[in-house]
Structure formats: C-alpha cells, structure tokens
Amino acid sequence: MLLEKLYRFVPRYGPEWGSGGIFGLRYHRGVLYFNLAFEAEAHFITDGEDKIYNYGLVGPEPTSGGDTYNAVEAVDNYIFFGGWVHAPAVYDKEKRKILFYNKYSHVHRYDIDEGKIELLWKETIAHESDWAGEVSEIIYDPVNNRLLLARGDGHRNLGIYSLPVGGGKAERISENPSLKGTVYEDTACFNLGQWYFEGFQYVDLVENRLELIPVENPESVDGGPLIFPLTGSLTTLSGRVFAFVRGGIVVGTPLYREESPVFYRLFDFPETAYAPARSNCLKTHGGVLVAYSAFSDSIGTHLKPIIAPTVLLYITPPQARVVAIFGNRVTALEKYGGKILVATNTMPNFTRSTPNDVGYRDIVVLEDSILQKSPPPLYISLKGEIVDRDYWGGIPLTGYKEPIITIIANKENTLEVYEYDLALPATPEAEREQIKVEKGRNKIDLSAYRGIVSFRFEKADYNAKIRISLEP
C-alpha cells in the first residue's frame, strides 16, 4: 500500500536555517506528493514506487531547500509545486553560514500520466545574503487557466504573480507582499503584508482587477488587541475568509461590507512563537483542520518559551475543538481516503545557518473518526512574565469536563475571564467575569464555561506560575 512507503526522515545534509520539514502534502489521482526540506527532495509516492526529484532542472547538486510554506496545487493530470531551492547549495564553513547566490524561486509541474517533471519557471537575484521572494502559495485560476503565486518571504520581487500553466514569464499583479491565499467566490483572496497579517488583497478573476482591504485593528470579541499576527494559512468557510494568525483567527468578508473583520483569540501566548505559521489548513467533513504549533519559527530569536504542545484544532463554527496533540510543530495536513496525514517536525526554522537539517520529520496517519471523538488531555504551563497584563489564552473548552486553571501567585490579584465562541457574525462582546486571586496557590474550576476562554490579569505578577489542565 501507498502508506507503507512512508518513513521517518532523520537529520541529513541540507544547508539552511535550522530545520525545514515535510511540506506540500497532496494526494491526487493515486500519487502522494510532498517536499522534504531542507534536503530539497520532491517525493512522488504511488503503490509501485517512491520517485524522488532533487531539483536538477534548477541547477546542479548539492541542492538544499525546496519549500517551507506548502506551495502546491493539483489540477486535472498535474501537480504543480513551488517554493525555493539552492542549486547548488553553498555553505561557507569558515563563516558558518549559508550563501544565497544560487537561491532560486521556482514552480514545477508533475505530469501524473507520464511521470514527467517540468520546470515552469525559476528566478534568482544572485545575492550573497538577499533573495527573490519565495513562492509560498500556488492557486489555480480556473477562469483564466493560469497559476497565481504569492510571494512574501524575501527581499525583492514580492507580491502576487501570474504564471501560465505551461510555464513562461511570471507577470506581477500586485506589488504588495503576500504569503498565503485561497479562492473566495469569484476571486483569489490573499493576505496583505510580508510577515504579519495587515488585511486582505484580492484578484477579481473575471475582471482581473486588484483590490486592497487593509485591516489595522480588527474588532476583537474579548476586547483585547491583536498583537504580532504572524500569518498562517487562509481558507474559506461558511461564506467568510478565515485568516489563521499568531494569536487566533481573523474572519472577514472582503467582497462584502455587511460584516467588519473580527478577531477571535485562540491559543494566544505573548512572547512565544506559538502560531499556525508554516503550515496549511485542511478542509474536511465540512469544517477546517488547522494546527497551532508550539515553535514553528524563531522569529528573530533563536529560542522561545515552550508553554504548550502543538494542537490540531477542528473549526466548525460556532465551536473550535482540540482533536489531537503533537510535539514541536505540524508542517502539513492532507486527506487520504478515511485517513488524515499529519507531517511533523521536532525542530523549528531557526534564524542562524546550519550545514544540515536538524529536525526529525515524519508523517503520522490518523483515522478521520478522530474528528468525532473526545479531545485529548491538554496541559499548559507558563509564567506571569509571559502574559504580563496582556490578553492571553483563547482556550477551547468544548469536550473537556474538568478544565482547571491553577495560579501560584506572589500577590493578591484579579483574573478577568472572557468567554465567547465562533458564532458568525460575532456576538457584540464576550461574557466577562472577575475572579479574586489570593497570594499563594489558587485552584479555579472552569467547568462552568463551555465555549472559548481568554484571560487577563489586573496586575502584573512576573513570577506567578500558571497551569491549565484540561481533562475530557
């Protein structure tokens, strides 16, 4: 069987920043494709073989990189895959850093019937430390039979580009950087912003018209601000666009003005890299699966606090529910029959060079019946210095019978608890309750709350210890 050919990938030569992962998981017409980064291996697995492509059409070996954003699209007999690759990879041992002279952005096409790989487009700026915008999203435009490419990670040639399905010149449609996008009715809707979510931009597929919709301070259901909204994936659900970001979800209707964009806080822990970044979401059973990873990216700092495991959330408004727990991060999700494929990695994408990929990566196979079962136990541990007086949390309690928060405080304080759900459109404001916190150990039963809960301390208590224990 196809799934019997899946195996674990251990650290090997692949110069770049820390660890890449398994990206672009896509099952289409009997072929399971994925990209192994940073080794720059594109795998095409069938019942008969595992064909591996090392990006020789881009340049000579040794190659490294490949894709770290899940840039893949499947159309008819083709699998289109993109990203970036060093060909050849150049690692300066004396300076202990990767050089970017040969870093190319790329789009390839795999012909399933012929088993043939074609290079449709590549681009480099041939610079020592800068690079051309990576391809981080590929969207097929069925109206104009073309590929739309999002490019937000890089120094030059960022924005949204159009590429013929047969290859050729990539034409820029928008100069505004973008990492991810989705098809929304008769448009292709992308995020606005290079790293952080700053709004929407969409391409009208009929009129080929670009429109920008900045979103500076979206209305928040718990009243708190959206801070450092590192962009994850975008998807459509229930007539809206869901933008998964560090801190939660921004839900908007870019084509309509009846509803203003709303921010729902979910697994928001200030000063951490806990985020849905560098992963895709998966539409299944009429809802959306999304991973919020414990440590996906260094984001300017080599090490970040680890306060909770990676969670796989199933979004079915008005509820969000935890369905699985993983280690450091999830990089890709895909459906295969009655199975859910989850690509995992033990290490993040670092901000310093290494000559080899440093993570252990594998593909976990889950039964999709997990979507209907009770959630797994979840334990969260953090200190008061992480949350300060900020809004934090956004913990879905659906399915948990014994949710408890324990606070070991160094002073008397007040904990504000906000309860809300993912109702569409959003309710005007969350239910708010104040709970007295005594100096010492406080055990607070949260079983009276049924939706999502976020928190805020009245006074900062930097040395306070906070534990959240959720039992089904």
Question: In a few lines, what is going on in this structure?
Answer:
This protein has 472 residues and is mainly β.
What does this structure look like?
With 472 residues, this protein is mostly beta strands. The chain folds into two domains: 2-372, 7 Propeller (Methylamine Dehydrogenase, Chain H), CATH 2.130.10; 378-471, Jelly Rolls (Sandwich), CATH 2.60.120.380. Helices cover 1% and strands 51% of the residues. Strands 6, 7, 8, 11 and 12 form a five-stranded antiparallel β-sheet that branches. Strands 21-25-24-23-22 form a five-stranded mixed β-sheet, with no helix packed on it. The protein has a four-stranded antiparallel β-sheet with strand order 2-3-4-5, with no helix packed on it. The model has no long low-confidence stretch (mean pLDDT 96).
Give the secondary structure arrangement, pairings included.
Blueprint: E1 13-18, E2 21-28, E3 31-37, E4 41-45, E5 50-53, E6 64-66, E7 72-75, E8 78-86, E9 90-92, E10 97-99, E11 103-111, E12 116-123, E13 137-141, E14 146-151, E15 159-164, E16 171-174, E17 181-184, E18 187-191, E19 199-204, E20 209-214, E21 219-220, E22 231-237, E23 240-245, E24 248-252, E25 262-265, E26 282-284, E27 287-292, E28 310-316, E29 319-326, E30 329-336, E31 339-345, E32 349-356, E33 361-367, E34 378-383, H1 384-387, E35 392-396, E36 402-409, E37 413-420, E38 431-437, E39 440-445, E40 452-457, E41 465-471
Parallel strand pairs: 21-25
Antiparallel strand pairs: 1-32, 2-3, 3-4, 4-5, 6-8, 7-8, 8-11, 9-10, 11-12, 13-14, 14-15, 15-16, 17-18, 18-19, 19-20, 22-23, 23-24, 24-25, 26-27, 27-28, 28-29, 30-31, 31-33, 34-41, 35-40, 36-39, 36-41, 37-38, 37-40
